Amino acid sequence: MSTPEPDVASERGASAPEPRPLRWDPEAPASPADILIALRFADRAARKAVGDELAGTGVHTGQELVLAKLLHLGALPVAQLAKVLDVEVPTATRTTQRMEAAGLVRRLKNDTDARKVSIELTEHGTELARTVQQLHAQAGERALRGVSAEDRRLLRNLLWSLTKNIEDVPCAGH
Hints:
By secondary structure, the chain is mainly α. Helices cover 57% and strands 7% of the residues. The protein contains seven helices and three strands. It has helices at 8-11, 32-54, 63-73, 78-85, 89-101, 123-143, 149-168, and strands spanning 76-77, 105-109, 117-121. It has a three-stranded antiparallel sheet. The radius of gyration is 20 Å and the shape is globular. The model is unreliable at 1-12 (pLDDT under 50).
């Protein structure tokens, strides 16, 4: 994948021209590095698209994932929520505290162990989670404009395969 060349004028401190779009030769071989770089750019673009769609909803980027997981899985202990979101427990705790203050989630105490607390969506949180699903669909439609149903299926399957391959790699020292 070839990316735009750096702008020499901006490196010298002069005003930078308009950024050029990313370009690549679709017929050129794709190295593993090309693939990961393209994935990183696609991830950034997807995050921005979702962020743009979330504007005005009161939901911040990252919180939409909490809403989606709780809508899909139901009430979860904070530690389990952190695990499914792939974040640290303190991060999940802070996020859910902010969401609780906004009336999106509530804490459920465990009847047998007061130390255990689960998080569940409030009615408002459930409504917003469904809205977020629609916003993800809108952002996805924009991202996949002109991509055939067969290519969408192939892309989805390839992305899940890449994810599995990366997650199956043992960490150094383990």
